[in-house]
Amino acid sequence: MTEVRIALANVRAATTPEESVSLATSAIADAGREGALVVCFPECFVPGYRWPGTKLPPTDPVFLARAWDEVAAAAGDAGITVVLGTERVTERGLQITACVIGPDGTIAGWQDKGQLDPAEESTYPAYGTERRVFTAGPLTFGVAICHEGFRYPETVRWAVRQGAQIVFHPHAHVAEPGSYRPTTFADPANSFHEKAMMCRAAENTCYFASVNNASEGSGTTSAILRPDGTLHSFQPYGKEGLLVADLDLAAATGILASRCRTSPLAAGAETPSYPAPSSHWSVWRQDDHGNRFRVRDGLTRDEAERSAAEFEAKGHKQSYWIEPTR
């Protein structure tokens, strides 16, 4: 069993950009003391999400660069990988992104938000055009930001088909006037959002780790879903703190994502050109005692599917499936 510890920074939203950096570095230090391999922050935590009707200072690339340096230094001091919800200015304009920082304090890369809520388009006009996965020790993970994970399952499936065992889901959600205020996770009377988290895990056989700010009355909280779609743990609504969890990576087989027989992302002029799924596939078997074995490797997907079908046709009682080679 390969077990990893992750942390979700369910902390309050800062009142100023400078405070957001202070809160982030403090949470990183706490997560490091907890022994977490990765800590993930909410959407646009630094400098803060630009909600309609709120006033944040204009975008300041100099401040952002300095903020990322401070967060990176904190990651290096704590020896932890950080997924920082933030914003950045590119040649396409201002966009929502996640900055992934390694335990050595260097920036490993970015996952820009490729699917925007219509209400965001005037504030964050630039769409991301690429997707990627990241590694931290034995863990491979992807990032789907807010609206992407709630409304576009393809963004999660893509990452799992590239070998991700966990997809982190930074999001920003606050109470609206008259909205339902839950106290239990996935309350039937609540909106669809937390049920969508469960679906993203179950339909891909991966862990789904969703992180929100701590705020009174919010309709969602930070939560971790198991690969079978059941709830692993959640942070009490409105309560600040780290949600820390130990996860068995062997449970995140990605089997349902790998069995998808259609392209995970439809073709079209507005569709980002993501890399193709892995061209190297393995056939796996599970015996009557739950032990898993790789029986064939180095195949194309078509070859792997034919091989698994041939094994099943022999009448063996064991289960056979295919997975992308990691």
Explain what the structure shows.
- There is one protein chain.
- By secondary structure, this protein is of the alpha/beta class.
- It folds into 2 domains: 3-256, Carbon-nitrogen hydrolase (Nitrilase/N-carbamoyl-D-aminoacid amidohydrolase), CATH 3.60.110; 278-324.
- The protein is built from 7 helices and 15 strands.
- It has helices at 17-33, 61-78, 147-151, 153-161, 193-202, 255-258, 301-313; strands spanning 3-10, 38-40, 81-90, 93-101, 107-112, 134-136, 139-143, 166-170, 207-211, 223-225, 231-234, 241-248, 281-286, 292-299, 319-324.
- It has a 6-stranded mixed sheet. A 6-stranded mixed sheet has the order 6-7-8-9-10-11, with helices on one face.
- Helix 2 (61-78) links the parallel strand 2 (38-40) and strand 3.
- The chain starts with a strand and ends with a strand.
- Residues 266-276 have low confidence and may be disordered.
